[in-house]
Amino acid sequence: MMRFLLLFSRQGKLRLQKWFTPLAERDKKKIIRDMTMMVLPRAPRSCNFLHWRDLKIVYKRYASLYFCCGLDDKDNELLALEVLHRYVELLDKYFGNVCELDIIFNFEKAYFILDEFLMGGEVQETSKLLVAKSMEESDMLQETMEEYMNKPAF
Amino acid sequence: MPAVSKGDGMRGLAVFISDIRNCKSKEAEIKRINKELANIRSKFKGDKALDGYSKKKYVCKLLFIFLLGHDIDFGHMEAVNLLSSNKYTEKQIGYLFISVLVNSNSELIRLINNAIKNDLASRNPTFMCLALHCIANVGSREMAEAFAGEIPRILVAGDTMDSVKQSAALCLLRLYKTSPDLVVMGEWTSRVVHLLNDQHMGVVTAAISLITCLSQKNPDEFKTCVSLAVSRLSRIVSSASTDLQDYTYYFVPAPWLSCKLLRLLQCYPPPEDGAVKGRLVECLETILNKAQEPPKSKKVQHSNAKNAILFEAISLIIHYDSEPNLLVRACNQLGQFLQHRETNLRYLALESMCTLASSEFSHEAVKTHIETVINALKTERDVSVRQRAADLLYAMCDRSNAKQIVAEMLSYLETADYSIREEMVLKVAILAEKYAVDYSWYVDTILNLIRIAGDYVSEEVWYRVIQIVINRDDVQGYAAKTVFEALQAPACHENMVKVGGYILGEFGNLIAGDPRSSPLVQFNLLHSKFHLCSVPTRALLLSAYIKFINLFPETKPTIQEVLRSDSQIRNSDVELQQRAVEYLKLSSIASTDVLATVLEEMPPFPERESSILAKLKKKKGPGALPVSELEEGKREGGGELNGGADRGNDMSAAASNASTPSPSTDLLGLRSAAAIGSAGPSTGSLLVDVFSEAGPTALSSGVNDEGFLRDLEPPTESSDSLLIEAPGESDSEDSAPPLPESDELLNKFVCKNNGVLFENQLLQIGIKSEYRQNLGRMYLFYGNKTSVQFLNVQTKPVEPLVEGGAQVQQVINIECLTDFSEAPLLNIKFRYGGALQNITLKLPVTINKFFQPTEMASQDFFQRWKQLNLPQQEAQKIFKASHGMDIELLKTKLLGLGCALLENVDPNPENFVCAGVIQTKAQQVGCLLRLEPNAQAQMYRLTLRSSKDTVSKRLCELLAEQF
């Protein structure tokens, strides 16, 4: 089971945090700090896996963003790497050529997409088509661009 | 600001985010955020009712601010309101906010649960999924209580949509993990197993995670899943890559599902049914064969997915550990990966091989790769890969290759990364000890360790080398000679000085015949290092000097001279000064006989598990998240039984012959070790008690983590007031009556949680316990003091065999239902030399263990004191002090009792007052305590007032025995 998933930039700015087990805020901050400090300085072609305490850490860099997750001891690292990749693909399919800014400005969407894909740290749906469809359906329930532009800016 | 292309962007939110991004400094950002918070607060408080959209927007802004790392203390109510909106987007944001910022506010939880209940009943699949996600994200006990019954129904109902089934399965899994007692097995369980046959691959993928977890806990009930899983796996493995459409990932059919199926099978032994087993072996062979086929795609995703399945299959093969053919194939495959150009694969191959190394079928096959692994240790660019290589070398080490591996690890240490040095040092020390054929090699190795990586040699390592040297006559002379030589180096590590000082102090006589290492030369050599050392080392050296006086009377004048010098006898450090004064006095007044008795050679240490091994285990430790448990330092509180700890106590006990014990330091500077360990042999000395007390504050914080509670298994029912699962309680009719001394033993534990409960010639029982509110957990360590095995240990939770000199551990979970006076009984039976040993002890569980300290001011204290004025609420005793009246000791004991020691409450500063609440499941009992010492009469008056008469009475009885 995945324990947490973090997205942070090369500068160490946290872009998304998802915790699959309840933790105190203090502990979360500590993990975030440890992860960025551990992952960011690693050389480009290093291996994508680390041990940290009794967790396996799997991370991968996509453009300016690091995707980093903590796994139970028994979990499969390679598969986790592909979980990260599938998540990137889903973001990409939704935003169309996703970049860090999309995730900053539409952070809630990034969470929603993740929720469609993972739940409680386990893979819920691996089909890209189905996840995308589900996201599309929920967007259908939302406003059009025109409505959007008519909204107050403050 | 990028254009928002999809869905409903919230314009105000985008503007705000953009503002934050434009902030030039942290201060500017905080200013902008505070402005926004003020704005939102005024909108929420305003008279005008907000429309759904604005509410959503503001809640979303708050969420953003929170995710930036700022505290949010309002807005929860608005988020809860959003939950009941019938607009999807509003509901969605509401749920997101709740999921991220769970609030323990019970009022709110009730409202949230209500909204969730409505959505679950709505039959709208999108709403149902949102609600299920929220439950899974929060996963609190309250939610489990509210929904653990409903979700299984949704999961197996015939008309539930596939997407809802997926969410329901994983949501149930989440609840089962947090509150297994609330998820009741029932008719639904058999139907869940059949989800393995579901047509929808997504449903199978989600359901199998749930089934795996349930199988781990109830393997028998879910046995049927094995054959279903095998046939599903077989269908996937044999399918063409296009068969599974969107579930094919980069030409690999359903990698997630395959891995999960292989993982599920790892919960069970190999299938007994021949046909099923044949089919499974065929699958595993196919997977191994596919690894040899040329890749269908050059993309890394393809090879990752394919190899993920391969590694999972290898895990299953290792788990079965029964098919030599498959094991050897697996090993060969991993061998290929060891030299693969992908770093990830090299890493994983090293990791997998570690487990293969422990199988008898493949151990030899793993060993053939030793050169490759050593090479990896030397040449890998990535430290995490090198670390795996070091792990594997450790795992594949045996008598045949120990010298080579230890030598390689030692030479690697010289250049090893700082982050892994300490662990490497421990591993080298363990291997050197485990596979030492001749102990001179062992001594050489450890001294080399100290030379190469002295800073990383923990106390345990040098304690251990001393233990071994002391216990083995044949190596003592060699050790003395070697440390003497090592100390000649102009710059040697302080740990070397410690080992040198200790060993020369004990065995310097063995090399004194050689004029090059005559007593005076030895002394001068040691003393030349003295001034460069820290206080504990100096203290140790002073002890070595006094031992020299005993070993070599001719050194007496020189050493007395040193002790008499101002820098010793007037040293500003109390400990050093005390030693200098006492040793000087001892050496001048004691007769040779007395001196020889006091400073006799250390007796051999009891053989037990290597303290370093324990340290390594602790390093790897049960430090699973929740992370609070992992915070360094907190773990210090939980002492462990190990040689290092014993050493501290042994030595302080031995040394106390020579000098007055001071409560805060022991004489050989090993205080830290003694403070960590708390279960050494109880010598009954004041010193040991004080050391054991050193833990309580640290312990209470250590206990204060969620994992402790979460891991707590549901206690079993018993008619006694205390729920306890003690071995032998069920057949109490043939248990011996409690030992006469059991009450006394019990009293030892009123104010402390750790220590030795019982000890005779055969058996030692150590106890470590922790309490939180009305729950407790107790670890019992059964140590076999004999050299033969204890067989057929009858307590079920314990390993059925205790090796000579070894110990096993048993865990007892405790729940206090209501107050009680009698301690539960622990009955132990075993055979030794044909005779049945039957021992009944009182488990040291006393009512005060469930104390929660309460801080209060003087005024409050006396107000409550007066409120508890019924005669039966008070219990009082006047008794004579039996342990002296040391204030610090009294304080420690009162704190150990578990209540809060209140300062500046009693008008008389001599008196002690304490307050606390006893937590039982049935009720909470507030207790106030007042202890009035009378130093002149050496008497105490102890008064307890609590809301329950039995509690006052029992506490008073317990405490009166303590002072």
- Give the beta-strand count of chain A: 7
Strand content of chain A: 15-25%
Compute the average pLDDT of chain B.
80
Query: What Rg of chain A do the Cα atoms give?
Result: 16 Å
Specify the oligomeric state: heterodimer
Radius of gyration of chain B: 33 Å
Largest interface: pair, residues per side: A-B, 74 and 90 residues
Strand content of chain B: 5-15%
Uncertain segments of chain B are: 1-7, 621-733, 791-800
Low-confidence stretches of chain A: none
Q: If helices are DSSP runs of H or I spanning 4 or more residues, what is the number of helices of chain A? A: 6
Structure description:
The complex is a heterodimer of chains A (154) and B (963). Chain A is of the alpha+beta class. Chain A is built from six helices and seven strands. In chain A, strands 2-1-5-4-3 form a five-stranded antiparallel sheet, with helices on both faces. In chain A, strands 6-7 form a two-stranded antiparallel ribbon. In chain A, a hairpin with a 2-residue loop joins strand 6 and strand 7. Chain A is globular and about 45 Å long. Chain B is of the alpha+beta class and 963 residues long. In chain B, the strands form five sheets. In chain B, strands 12, 13, 14, 15, 16 and 17 form a six-stranded antiparallel sheet that branches. The longest helix of chain B is centred in the N-terminal third of the chain and has 21 residues, at 300-320. The relative contact order of chain B is 0.03. The model of chain B is unreliable at 1-7, 621-733 and 791-800 (pLDDT under 50). At the A-B interface, helix 1, strand 3, helix 2, helix 3 and helix 4 of A face helix 1, helix 3, helix 5, helix 7 and helix 10 of B.
